[in-house]
Every structure is written in structure tokens, then in C-alpha cells.
Amino acid sequence: MNFNKNVNESSEANLDLTPIVDVVFNLLIFFALSLNFSEITSSLNIKLPKAKSSETLSEMQIIISIEKDNKIYINDKAFYYDEISKYLSNRDKDKTIVIKADESIDHGFVVNIMDMVKSSGFQKIGIAVKKSE
Fold first, then answer.
1. Tell me: the pLDDT tens digits for 72-123?
2. What domains are defined for the chain?
3. pTM to 2 decimals?
């Protein structure tokens, strides 16, 4: 047996890429389909009240979410009650404010938030609801 390799002989290592391409293609299809079937929501735990007469807004909007225990979020960023006026005063007044309040929140607290939004100069205010069948 001759274990010496001749330097003149070139040996190429071939790597078959077909299985790798198949796996990547399958992952791409899986993630594309899972994005289509997932409902786009925020990470906040808000149970919206139901209403039969609801409309879908397609214009630019600022979303104020109110969780249980009166935790306030504006576009998924946490805010204290006192900071809302300052934040809204620096925003475009032509946008629509959508209030997503949990159905267990005190009505008076939501009215206070709406009053704060109105006094900040916004004219378009909406309340998010879940469409009832």
C-alpha cells in the first residue's frame, strides 16, 4: 500500500448544496405562511369591548392603550399619566388618536384620557372595539 500522496494529483472536495437549499427554501415558506396567518397585535394584554357598528381606520394614527390597573402605553411604549400631555403636544395634530382600553377599565379614567387628548389639540379621537358578530 502506498500512503504517499502525489503532489501533482489535485483532489477537489465537492460539497453538495442541494440539501441546504431545500432546507432554507422550506424555512422561508414556513415563515412566510406563518406571518400570513398570525394576527398582528401588540404584546399588551387588552380585552377590547365588542360592538356591532365598527369601522376600520386606514389613516395615520397614534394608539393609546390602557391595560388593567390603568397602565398607559402610547404606540406600545409605557407612559405615566402625567407624561401624556407633553408627549402629545409634540405630535402631528392631523393624526387620529385611537384609544384601546380594556373593557374592565373605569369609564371615568378613559374620559380623562380623552379630555387630555382633546386639550392637546387633537380633533379626531376613536375608541378601538372588537367587531361583534
1. 999 889 999 989 889 998 888 888 899 988 888 888 999 999 999 999 999 8
2. 50-131 (3.30.420.270)
3. 0.61
